[in-house]
Structure formats: C-alpha cells, structure tokens
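TASK: fixed-backbone design
INPUT:
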C-alpha cells in the first residue's frame, strides 16, 4: 500500500469515527466535515504525492481550504469537546491522581471546571467576538465604511507544562480554536498519564488536520520548533522560553509566552492576620506549591511576623490535618528530580513548620521557613514547591529593596486594611497580575487578561483576551469612486498652502 492509499484509509476510518461520534444530534457537523474532508483530501493528496505530509502541513492545507472558517462549526466542535471532557471525567481524575496526586475535587476546581467555563464563555460570545466590527471613518477618507476583521493566524504550535497538565493544554486550545486556528499540541512528558488522556480526548473530538497531539520531550519540541508556524503559545520556564523565542524569531512568528517568577506576598501590620494566613496557605499549598502564580515568598511586617506564622500553622492543619501525607487534598511533587531539588533547598534552614518528606510518595510537607535576607538559597530562583520562606520588613524602602532585586514577577499579593497604602503599593511595582487581600483568584475572572511581563511572560490570554491574542485584527476600508477631488494627487507644489491647513483641520 503506498502513502496515498494509507492516507485515504486513515481518513476514511477517521471520518467514520467522527460520524459515529457526532451521532444524529449534530447532522450539521457531520455534513460540514464530509464536505471539507473531501476538499481537503484532494489538496492533501497532491501534497502527499510530493512528500509534504507533516502534521503542520496537513493542518495548513485544512486551514487554507477554509476548514475552520465557520463560526457555527467552531461552536459546535467546542460543544463536542465539552461533551467528551465530561464523558472522560473519571479518566481525567485518574490521570491527575497518578501524575500529581490530585484529588477529584482539586482536579475539578483547578483543571476541568475552568476549561468547561472557558468553553461555555466562547459558545455564548463567539458570534459577537468573530463578527467584523464597523468603526467610524476619518474625515480624511470621507465618505467610507471602515471595518476591523478578526482573522485567525492559521496553524498554531502549543507547548504545554506539567503542573496543570489538563487545564493548561485546554484553556489556550479553546481560545485558539474559537479564534479559528488549527493547533498542534505538545503536552508535557512529565505528566504522561494526563498527556495520554489529553491525546485520547483530542482524537475523539477533532480531526487531526484541525487539532492534533504530538507527544514527547524536549527533542520533540525542538523538532517542532524547527518548522514554521503562524503562532506559538508556550507555557513553562524562562530558559526554555528563550529557546522558543529564538526559534520563533527565525520566521518572525508571533508568540504568547506564559512563564513564572518569584512572586512576593506582602503582609502589612494592618492586615487581618487570620484571613491573610488562610488565603496564603490556600494559594501556596494548592497543587503542592507547583503553581506559577503561587506566592513564592512572604514579606511580613516585623511587628506581625509571629502572629502570621502562628495563624499559618493553624490554617495548614485546618486544611490538610496534622499529617498532610494522608490528606485527601494534598498531592505530590511531580518527580524525583524536582523532589530532590526542593529537599536540597531545605538544608540548614530555620524551619518553623513542616520539613518532613517521603521519597517513595514524592511527598514534601507544607513547610514554613524563617529567612533573614535574600542571600538565602531559597531566594535565588522560583521555588515551585511547598516551601514558603518568610522574610520581614519595616519600611516601604525595605520592600522596594527586596522586590526590585528580582525580575518582574507573574503575580503580586498585598494583605492590608490600609486601602490607600495597598493601592499605592500595587501601582508602584510591575507584575503580571495581582490581588489586594487574596491569592490566585485573578486567574478566575476571564474578563482579566492572564499573563506576565518581562521574564514572567509576553502576551496574555483567557476569555476575550484569548480571542484577541490568537487573531490578527485586519482593518479595511470600503470606498466608492466619487468624490475624487484632484487636490490629493501630485503635483503638490501649488496645493500645499491649501492642503496643510486642511489636513490640520481634518485631523
Ligand atoms: P519547562 O519549560 O521545563 O517545560 C515546558 C514544556 O517545554 C514541556 O512541554 C517540555 O517538554 C518543553 N521543553 C522542555 N525542555 C525543552 C527544550 N530544551 N526545548 C524545547 N522544549 C522543551 O517548564 P515546566 O517545568 O513544565 O513548567 C514549570 C515552569 O512553568 C515554572 O517556571 C512555572 O512558573 C511556569 N508556568 C507558567 C504558567 C503560566 O501560565 N504563566 C503556568 C504553568 C507553569
């Protein structure tokens, strides 16, 4: 069997799967897929004959043949995606339990639930978002009709991390598909059970020329990065982001880079200490501290340090019991490499709570550490684990001196009852996103753009911001042939005395 025959056989079985899957409830989707598949098949056959059958090329042909143009179809496929996710909830829970020790409740709250609401958002708002917008014309161009058309970029590469291995694949994906792109996903190899589950879901919802999953580690990412993409979304660490940015620069490919950083959490002397402690514990120890927007270190006013530590100990035991190892809600470190990295940070530290570990279960207890200054090894890089260094400050100048030692963080938290002071602090520093008197929740409002600045990221997404990020805003003007005054055409020498004040007046 030659390559073309194999391809046809594969497509035929895929179309059958899609038809069986879409069932009678979605006759529209079936018919549309059939028509576009035949158009696509013809063009692909040509490409395959000349040996250009990489996943990216197959998607490019599909995109260029208009496969993703229909907004109705995009909404329909997102509906299918929701259905398949719901049908696979048990598998998703099992995969996340195996990879990160997550409980089904945490999986729903921090992974699946967020994806489902993102899908609902686009199903409700896509017509409005995708519609060309008419804007008022300028007097210089009068009379005219002026429009902005949101145009999908085309074929996207999406490289994903391990810490929220379900949510961080699907949230950008939903926006990318809603915007009309095709997507090749490279999930993290460090969460293999979730990657397999993601792949299974994608195969059951999308034909591969629309969305497909390529599994593997850094070598697979690098092979993908050698190809030319229309857009790249990358979520992960800063060092790999530089590799991604370099590869993208070769083709001038636009990117969204979602990274991390050392996120400060300031606790002022006026803060409601027990609430601050509960909310810090929630934000830091969810997913064992393996959260890009978790507080990385505490800066507490010296006068309230002891009461904050006491309240945080109480909050930890209230959430995870006396023995977090047996807590339903406390997970594990992703792998031995990160387990060893985190334990090495704990050597010779002044631990005020926690510090216990178990290599067999990749368990590290929620741990609070008193730290004197930024020379401590815990203050070198993003911790990304359940270790919380606590530093003290006395003046605003102390805060500035510590915070500005680091690159701009992804998140920034201030606990204070002094509203004006807290606002002043929020405006004084640059960071991806922040909250006064809470942690993490900036992530949950899709009206807010989610992203970093400087070393914590480039670009932002979520809800409407995803649609904006993953489409080119294409302006065009429609004009008639009349009027056509001659003063706009050269020669200008004799007209400039009239044109200068006219342009000034018109603008
Ligand atoms: P990582 O950079 O090691 O890996 C992310 C992805 O890059 C994976 O798919 C991996 O296979 C790939 N990769 C790894 N090495 C590569 C290489 N040399 N060349 C090409 N590709 C390569 O990141 P991680 O450890 O999975 O995630 C942790 C980091 O991600 C933390 O810094 C965290 O703050 C950040 N993060 C940010 C967000 C956000 O939304 N801003 C979310 C989650 C995690």
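OUTPUT:
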């Amino acid at each position: 069997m030659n390559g073309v025959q194999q391809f046809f056989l594969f497509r035929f079985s895929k179309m059958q799967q899609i038809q069986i899957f879409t069932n009678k409830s979605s006759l529209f989707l079936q018919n549309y897929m059939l028509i576009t598949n035949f158009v696509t098949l013809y063009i692909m056959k040509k490409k395959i004959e000349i040996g250009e059958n990489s996943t990216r090329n197959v998607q490019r042909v599909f995109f260029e043949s208009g496969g993703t143009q229909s907004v109705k179809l995009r909404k329909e496929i997102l509906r299918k995606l929701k259905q398949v996710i719901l049908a696979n909830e048990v598998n998703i829970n099992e995969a996340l339990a195996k990879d990160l020790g997550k409980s089904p409740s945490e999986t729903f709250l921090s992974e699946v639930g967020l994806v489902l609401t993102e899908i609902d958002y686009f199903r409700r708002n896509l017509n409005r978002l995708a519609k060309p917008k008419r804007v008022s014309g300028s007097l210089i161009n009068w009379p005219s009709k002026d429009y902005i058309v949101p145009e999908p970029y085309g074929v996207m590469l999406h490289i994903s991390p391990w810490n929220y291995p379900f949510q961080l694949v699907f949230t950008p994906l939903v926006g990318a598909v809603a915007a009309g792109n095709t997507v090749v996903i490279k999930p993290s190899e460090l969460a293999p059970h979730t990657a397999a589950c993601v792949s299974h879901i994608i195969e059951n919802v999308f034909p591969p020329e629309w969305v497909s999953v390529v599994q593997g580690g850094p070598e697979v990412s690098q092979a993908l990065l050698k190809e030319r993409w229309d857009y790249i979304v990358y979520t992960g660490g800063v060092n790999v982001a530089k590799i991604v940015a370099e590869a993208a620069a070769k083709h001038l490919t636009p990117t969204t880079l979602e990274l991390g950083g050392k996120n400060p959490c300031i606790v002022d002397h006026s803060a409601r200490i027990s609430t601050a402690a509960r909310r810090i514990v929630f934000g830091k120890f969810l997913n064992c501290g393996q959260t890009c927007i978790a507080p990385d270190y505490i800066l507490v006013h010296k006068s309230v340090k002891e009461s904050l530590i006491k309240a945080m100990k109480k909050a930890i035991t209230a959430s995870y019991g006396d023995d977090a190892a047996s807590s339903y809600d406390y997970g594990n470190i992703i792998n031995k490499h990160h387990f060893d990295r985190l334990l090495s940070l704990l050597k010779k530290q002044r631990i005020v709570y926690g510090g216990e570990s178990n290599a067999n279960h990749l368990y590290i207890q929620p741990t609070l550490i008193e730290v004197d200054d930024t020379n401590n090894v815990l203050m070198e890089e993003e911790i990304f684990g359940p270790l919380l260094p606590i530093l003290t400050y006395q003046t605003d100048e102390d805060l500035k001196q510590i915070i500005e030692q680091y690159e701009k963080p992804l998140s920034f938290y201030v606990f204070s009852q002094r509203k004006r002071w807290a606002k002043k602090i929020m405006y004084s520093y640059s960071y991806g996103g922040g909250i006064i008197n809470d942690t993490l929740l900036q992530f949950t409002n899709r009206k807010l753009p989610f992203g970093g600045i400087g070393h914590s990221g480039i670009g932002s997404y979520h809800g409407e911001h995803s649609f904006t990020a993953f489409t080119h805003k294409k302006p065009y003007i429609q004009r008639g042939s009349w009027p056509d005054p001659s003063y706009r055409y050269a020669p200008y020498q004799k007209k400039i005395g009239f044109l200068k004040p006219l342009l000034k007046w018109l603008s």
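COMMENT: The longest helix spans residues 104-130.
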